[in-house]
Amino acid sequence: MGAAVLTTPPVWKSIFFAGWLVFLFAFAVLGTGVTAQLDPDARRRLFTLRNATSAALYLGLTVVAGGVLSVDRTGGMVLLALVAITNYFLTGRGDEELIPLTRLHARITRRVAFRVIAIVSATMALVLFFSLSRPEPDQQNANFSFAMGTFLAAGAASLKVHSRARKLCTQINAQARSLIQALDSLTTATADQVSSHMNSARHEWHRLSQLLENRIETGLPLHGTALLPASNRRCLEGMVNMALVDTPQGTLFLSQARAELHLLVRVCARRIDTTL
Question: Among 12, 32, 35, 124, which lies 20 to 30 A Cα-Cα from 138?
């Protein structure tokens, strides 16, 4: 009876870990290829459900890790390490579906929050690992110094994530305004000025496009989420190109591009920090 009681928790934890990883992998990675043949509306709804479920499960796993930590330091350490690792599966190509720009602020907030959770979880798991591996009384001072240094580094890394998101939004806000001004100048350009103004507008779009491709959480291209999904970038690029071709003969496409750019400006304005 005693042996059964001792072996049950590790088996339960193993099943929980394996089930979580398999579900997250299938939801976040395989879902992209499996749903490739669905119509756009069904595909969009499925990816929205997937993203919401993944976020809920990630937050749920974080809460469970905190709860387990209060009764089992080893189990809590393993769960916290799992929280940090699964952050990798929540970023990348699976989140490249077209989104309304009104949801961009929530997208940035979610990615920043998840990355901070991963940093804190990894730090706590590392500190617990060292404290459990060196339990001798004469090691406690060293353990404390290591923990303080690690927590300070985690705090600096978390602030870096917030700073990166604010800096990107500040630069995008300014660059989108510059592109709007460049597009507006086409409407008043004379025949001999059109080519020069068009080249200027293309240059402004190129700079904005580069900013929109930057990752929110990290500068590493293989482990991060683009500030704006690829579908949105292609859509916005099409609007700008049509506006360049149509203006100054017409202003329909210019109006559409300006409306989208103004929405991007308003969303990013909520995170402006010109002191960076």
Answer: 124
